[in-house]
Design brief:
With 298 residues, the chain is of the alpha/beta class. It is 39% helix and 15% strand. It contains 11 helices and 9 strands. The strands form 2 sheets. It has a 5-stranded parallel beta sheet with strand order 2-1-3-4-5, sandwiched between helices. A 4-stranded parallel beta sheet has the order 7-6-8-9, covered by helices on one side. Strand 6, helix 9 and strand 7 form a beta-alpha-beta unit. The protein is globular, with a radius of gyration of 19 Å. It starts with a helix and ends in a 22-residue tail after the last helix. The relative contact order is 0.15.
Length: 298
Amino acid sequence: MSYVASEIASQPETWRRAVDLVAQPGVARALPQAGERVAVVGCGTSYFMAQSFAALRESAGQGETDAFAASEFPAGRRYDRVVAITRSGTTTEVIRLLEQLPPGSRSTVITTDADRPVTRLVSDCVVLDFADEQSVVQTRFATTALAAWRAGLGQDLTDPISQVRAQLSTPLDPAVAGRDQFTFLGTGWTVGLAHEAALKLREAAQVWAESYPAMEFRHGPISVVDHRSVVWIFGPVVPGIRDDLAATGAIVVHEDVDAMAHLTTAQRLAVELAVRRGLHPDRPRLLTRSVVLPAPAA
């Protein structure tokens, strides 16, 4: 079994541990407090989780929350707290952003090791060491960080944890795995999950995969969907989308389960597609566990 396959399978336990961790007063205080104006930043998978973080917090009425790729953070904008998500704690863009925050800024990092460069640049840390990974392709750290965030917002994750156990034990649909074009759709907090699912397929299996907010799909992207395609929907199905897809020949995937649990099935699909294509899912082309860039020229 590949590292990534075993890490995907471990998610029910890491989510449970994240819930327990956030119940600790010190960890709860490290997360944004109600009413704070917050920016959540990350790169790659962590950026997509930041999008889900922001949508969840705003919809919970906790305060204005924006998400940015770390390299695109608007330096002149002020927030009560910046939250950085980084599995490695060494990502250059995240470190450069935190170094440039005004003195005295409140900042939190969600990472896997308290002894990483990024932890020396923030006022608070949430350490998910039990969710660290050996694979380059990120799976359980992302969802465990999201589980911690959801628990911090007061969500009960009993059902999602039960549902992910069921998802992980359900065989993949061979008809889905037999297609070669994939589009992932989401709404609200699940838009970030759609982007993340597409990224997993691109990273692990080098397949054609894209993602959109569901209502944007009819504004052009539907034109390339046909009998080779799978359209995978996270969260609620927007009105009329099934009727629009009926004429395309695409397989439509949707389950009435927690979207975070459903993401684990997309992760498993990425591994399956990699194996079918003769690729090793732990060794994605041109990727490393962390992007560490050289210092800019003086």
